[in-house]
């Protein structure tokens, strides 16, 4: 058990403004607030492991605060160094440094490589990663495409960020280059870099694995096969000032909230940890990404140092007090760091043998104190195994639960797909085409990358080690009951004071050099995760397909209705057209009847007048001629109309000719009547009935009257005929339009049909996907079974151990007795 190492660093004042009331004084390892004339302000004085004044260089900070930590990391301990403080207080300056005074990160990297060069009996493998937490989202700074990464926990790896790129490095220069490109990625597409860097946390992480070199002749096999894995986190936190309530709207407000949340949870975790082991209840590591990732570094298995940076200006005094309060709380936290060794099965066996051997030797010495110590140690070991077993059970339970959930989801999906396919097959039957079957070969080829088993990148020239079941077990934090455990803003406010900073007016460490970064392979994700994601995608896809199908069905019914309506209209129009076509025929018929009547009347009149005046007979015959010509013209026109000839205008000349002919005939009749007019005055009673228009008219007048009447009639007939023809034209046009519309509708219908077919294809694809998912599920099930088997084996071993322990205890007792 050891306390967290806490240091405070005051940066040099930026402006030369003279302080009017107070100033911070640094003496040895103490910092206190003084009035201008020198008297200390009571209650505001803090002591820490180190207090660095403004003349202190990064070199000194590194030597005094972080060097030991870095060396411990090389020896197999986890280590974490934080920089905490308000914006512009010098966090980035401390972590990154400047070109003539490199910061902690640079020095640590160089130091690590120097140190491992000096260790000749172990071989090392070093991996680095660089991430940023911005708005509670984890982004990979080594690969811009890796955004919004998730945190996972596994037995082998403990808490880890899934999909984060880890680069294997062999020297410090390589790391520096990677860091530079990381900085470039961090500001990719950023318009306001300063604002972002003060609102985000960055974590630079080094994982150091080491293994003793093969010394096969050596008898000291206690740790030669064990692998040490240690993690170093170097964290540049976001500015600790409160910016949530600056009143800035939109993005800024949201960012403020998240920073507050992450730092608030960090403050809260530190608060709870500093309460001491007895009061420690639930530590809300899981409430923010930052605390979750740094869980082992906070009250867990890690050596931790925090450097709190302060701005000396008087305007920042409230925020500085907040930072000091945070630092003094952190000072109270104790961690329990231990070397992280992963034992391969062979190494474990060897080590146990060795332990038994030692025990036997000690037993032979039979020193009571030693024996008691051994018993205690064994008991502790027992407890440790018990704990491990419990943890395993917990993990198994979790696994089982998530598996059940997954199965349920798959069942739901299957039901949905079944519903969908039944719907689709119904639709299919009605349309008589469309196929549900897509080539399965094609499918599997298509979906190949979606369900690829993730392959883990093998380390070049690295030793390969099988991690045993006894590998390092991560510290589990209990699941959060609710967020009510998290300190609210007011608590945070009280703890960290309420300084509000204008970020834009602050000066900052210049950003790193910009440099292009070659795109590299993605770090593989955990298969479980990708499986879940795939399932989600599938679900979404199916929903979309269902929606599309419904939409299509709706459209289809609408189209059918429209089609029906149009068909009705078309048949109406056809009937009308038929009627119009029949019209000339009917006119022909009525004309024939008229002609018959006319001839009848004429013949009757002729029979009446035959024995009277020849002039009358002449008139009658003329009239009959006229009538005949008239009728024949009409007949010709009508027959043309019946035959479908449309050129009424072309026939106009014909009509006019007829007209002329008729008028000539009329004239002839009239002139033939004129000579007999004088002689036949007494025959007026005969003529009278012939003229209906004027009783007192003469024969000439009578003829004119006839002529007029006939021409009127002719005009009427002509007019009627023209109207009819126009109507016919209109009908034809209408018919044409309808035909066109019908054609376009049919085309549309065809398109819709095609669309539906493609949808059907998609559905079948989805079902194929589902089969794949089911396969994966089975694999997961298999994994689970092996997990169960492993657990059983472990239990068995524990039993063996306890039996051995019992027998040993018995023998010890007997010896003791
Ligand atoms: P933060 O990361 O906390 O927002 P910066 O590291 O960007 O703050 O520091 C703000 C400014 O102060 C920068 O211009 C930086 O160079 C300067 N600065 C900070 N600490 C020191 C120091 N110890 N010595 C010299 N300059 C410093
Ligand atoms: Mg900074």
TrEMBL record:
<dbReference type="InterPro" id="IPR027640">
    <property type="entry name" value="Kinesin-like_fam"/>
</dbReference>
<feature type="binding site">
    <location>
        <begin position="85"/>
        <end position="92"/>
    </location>
    <ligand>
        <name>ATP</name>
    </ligand>
</feature>
<feature type="compositionally biased region" description="Polar residues">
    <location>
        <begin position="419"/>
        <end position="436"/>
    </location>
</feature>
<dbReference type="InterPro" id="IPR036961">
    <property type="entry name" value="Kinesin_motor_dom_sf"/>
</dbReference>
<dbReference type="GO" id="GO:0000278">
    <property type="term" value="P:mitotic cell cycle"/>
</dbReference>
<keyword id="KW-0505">Motor protein</keyword>
<feature type="coiled-coil region">
    <location>
        <begin position="528"/>
        <end position="569"/>
    </location>
</feature>
<dbReference type="GO" id="GO:0042327">
    <property type="term" value="P:positive regulation of phosphorylation"/>
</dbReference>
<dbReference type="GO" id="GO:0007018">
    <property type="term" value="P:microtubule-based movement"/>
</dbReference>
<dbReference type="GO" id="GO:0005874">
    <property type="term" value="C:microtubule"/>
</dbReference>
<keyword id="KW-0175">Coiled coil</keyword>
<feature type="domain" description="Kinesin motor">
    <location>
        <begin position="3"/>
        <end position="333"/>
    </location>
</feature>
<dbReference type="GO" id="GO:0033044">
    <property type="term" value="P:regulation of chromosome organization"/>
</dbReference>
<dbReference type="GO" id="GO:0008608">
    <property type="term" value="P:attachment of spindle microtubules to kinetochore"/>
</dbReference>
<dbReference type="GO" id="GO:0043515">
    <property type="term" value="F:kinetochore binding"/>
</dbReference>
<dbReference type="GO" id="GO:0000226">
    <property type="term" value="P:microtubule cytoskeleton organization"/>
</dbReference>
<dbReference type="GO" id="GO:1901987">
    <property type="term" value="P:regulation of cell cycle phase transition"/>
</dbReference>
<keyword id="KW-0067">ATP-binding</keyword>
<feature type="compositionally biased region" description="Basic and acidic residues">
    <location>
        <begin position="439"/>
        <end position="450"/>
    </location>
</feature>
<dbReference type="InterPro" id="IPR001752">
    <property type="entry name" value="Kinesin_motor_dom"/>
</dbReference>
<dbReference type="InterPro" id="IPR027417">
    <property type="entry name" value="P-loop_NTPase"/>
</dbReference>
<protein>
    <recommendedName>
        <fullName>Kinesin-like protein</fullName>
    </recommendedName>
</protein>
<dbReference type="GO" id="GO:0005524">
    <property type="term" value="F:ATP binding"/>
</dbReference>
<keyword id="KW-0547">Nucleotide-binding</keyword>
<dbReference type="GO" id="GO:0000779">
    <property type="term" value="C:condensed chromosome, centromeric region"/>
</dbReference>
<dbReference type="GO" id="GO:0140694">
    <property type="term" value="P:membraneless organelle assembly"/>
</dbReference>
<dbReference type="Pfam" id="PF00225">
    <property type="entry name" value="Kinesin"/>
</dbReference>
<dbReference type="InterPro" id="IPR019821">
    <property type="entry name" value="Kinesin_motor_CS"/>
</dbReference>
<comment type="similarity">
    <text>Belongs to the TRAFAC class myosin-kinesin ATPase superfamily. Kinesin family. KIN-7 subfamily.</text>
</comment>
<feature type="coiled-coil region">
    <location>
        <begin position="707"/>
        <end position="797"/>
    </location>
</feature>
<feature type="coiled-coil region">
    <location>
        <begin position="349"/>
        <end position="402"/>
    </location>
</feature>
<dbReference type="GO" id="GO:0008017">
    <property type="term" value="F:microtubule binding"/>
</dbReference>
<dbReference type="GO" id="GO:0003777">
    <property type="term" value="F:microtubule motor activity"/>
</dbReference>
<keyword id="KW-0493">Microtubule</keyword>
<feature type="region of interest" description="Disordered">
    <location>
        <begin position="415"/>
        <end position="451"/>
    </location>
</feature>
